[in-house]
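Q: Entry one of two.
A:
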Amino acid sequence: MGKSVTIGILFSTSGPYAAIGRDCRDGADLALAELAADPSAPVRFDAIHADPQGDPRRYLDEARAMLGEAGCRQIVGTITSIARKEVIPLIEKHDGLLWYVCPYEGFEANESVIYTGACPNQHLIPLFDYLMPRQGKRAFLIGANYVWGWEMNRLARDLLLEAGGEVVGERCLPLEETDVERLIGEIRERRPDFILNNLIGPASYAFLRAYHALGERDRAFHPERRPVVSCDLTECELGAVGDGIAAGNLSAASYFDTLDLRENVAFKARVAAAFGAGRRVSAFFEASYTTVHMLAAAIAETGSDDPAAVKAAVHGRGFDTPHGPLRIDPRTNHAALPFHLGRITADGGFDIVASRPAMAADPYLTARMKGGRGNLRVVS
């Protein structure tokens, strides 16, 4: 039997963004089960699971219990940037390592965090590179009322103004705000070329339902004319929005269930065996699954869960993943990730319409002024 290591799995599987948290936890649990079932695996994890219910204070309490009472040195988790930023000082105090799997707004590179989710040069910038020449440069920006929404809207504003475009409106809403009719009225009045949706959870679902209803009343607001575009909307939330409601709109991700790679076909077969043939896989699920296996490989290589040794092992090698080869940049602790743009289908999936190969993360956008954006491959 391989070495047994205690780790923390810290995702909100209830609360306002529970659909994301459940997919993150399911991805981690599949990797944990695979390691436990493999008699040749040199590392197995005793996982401490916790559900902070979307409450930043509970994230802190649960992380404290993991790092202190349970003796974890590695935590896979947190979803929102509020929660991540709340937990990081505690991780630093205990000389631990946090593995963050979700897309975020960038402008962070912490020595105590491995970032396997995308940052803006891997999602927002290539999204706008695709969108503005085809759709137009007049945008309405909506976002969750915390750092994700604020920073993503700020970056979008900069991209639009640099391209000679215009922000025709901007609004932020609390995560659980579902009264969006005034927002819909503003969008109808100002008629943007597209809407950037950085809302989270119930606010996002309510907006997408209301925008769909607007498009049914007025075809000028059909997704073919004025799409809603996102950097965090994936397969796991489309059921909460409603069958077919978001169809035609666009979202950016480093992974989609429909990705045509040999590695992904094999991965999806394992998912189907564990969860049933109908289970769609999101970027959240895939990133969490990949991250747990990366952590296991690093500990196996070093023979220790010491964070400094684990980081050195992660920095020194590549990993095979369902979305292709992956490396962690030792300068930033961020993963190099591909960009895919998906158009939502009526059956709750995504058709990939444009892609870029894996790009090194640039969390502070240092290459932006140098024009280093990579080549966009348009599928359709």
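Q: Entry two of two.
A:
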Amino acid sequence: MSNVKTRPLYGRKLMSLFLTSIVTMGGFGAFFAFILSIAHKKLRVEVDPREEQVLNALPGANCGACGFASCRALAEAIVKGDAPVNSCVAGGSEVAEKISRLMGVGSVTVQKKLAFVHCGAQSEQRTKKAIYQGVKSCRAASIVMGADTACPYGCIGFGDCEVACPFNAIKMVGGLPQIDLNKCTGCGNCVNVCPQNIISLESFDDINYKVACSSLDKGKKARQVCQKACIACGLCEKFCPFDACEVKNNLAHIDLLNCQRCGVCAIKCPTNAIIQISLPLDENQPVTLDK
């Protein structure tokens, strides 16, 4: 009989405790919400609306060629004045022009440079010195004396540059990177990742003559390890009518200021180490690499 009388009292106490807990937690929630609203007003950082506009004008590739970790970081730097409006190498002059208008500055341009591989020998044209069975990575292979390639200056051929290219502009063909100049933006990722330092960003005209070799060995030794090596014979220097060719440290060099694109150097080169590159005149014309 006593149990029946105490049950309603116990229920009322439990309900009272439950309601007290709800009110208490609600009070704490309201208090902290009030504190957070004050903190938000006091500590918030005003965002310049131009940041989103500049970000939308950028390619969004986050390639890092500008020196910033992402396109958003670059947009913030440009708006703050910590980076010039033409910092985006990948976007070129078109993007620079859009950003210059958004920032209210004068018209600017970007000097266009594209990647070039200073090696012209595919795997079958290189002498092998060993059988490499390690990690298929140029960086890893460079640690063990360049994998199986006898030439210490040439391409190792495992395609680290292809993996690093965010624009799908590099394909490995016969163990040698082929760069699609239509897709290349000059971001420089391939330059940074190549352990042999045989990729550089170069200025290009409609017709170009480039030395596709990096060997500093003397002619006989260079020829023994690579069919496409510059052998420092000096024929390019001898026959160039504009004094644009010079052999230094057993390697031919072309002075772009003097070069008139006559092609004599490429014709006279006995190993085809000097090649002609013709840029497309429009987007539908493919890039061609000739002798």
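A: Comment on entry two: The first strand starts at residue 114 and ends at 117. The beta strands are 114-117, 170-173, 176-179, 199-202, 207-211, 245-248, 251-254, 274-278, 288-290.
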